[in-house]
Amino acid sequence: MSYTIALNFEDGVTRFIGCKAGETVLDAAYRQKVNLPMDCSDGVCGTCKGHCEQGAFDMGDDYLDDALSEEEAAEGQVLTCQMVPSSDCVIQVPVASTLCKTQVGELHGTVAMVEALSEDSIELAIDLDEGAELAFLPGQYLHIEVPGSGQHRSYSFSSLPGSRRATFLIRNIPGGLMSGYLDGQARPGDRLKLTGPLGSFYLREVTRPVLMLAGGTGLAPFLSMLEQLVQMRADGKATDTPIHLIYGVNKDDHLVKVGALDAFAEALPNFRYTTVVVDEASEHPHKGYVTHHMDAEVLNDGDVDVYLCGPPPMVDAVLKHFDAKGIVPQSFHYEKFTPNQAPSAEEVA
Question: Minimal CB count within 10 Å: which of 63, 254, 265, 348?
Answer without folding.
Answer: 348
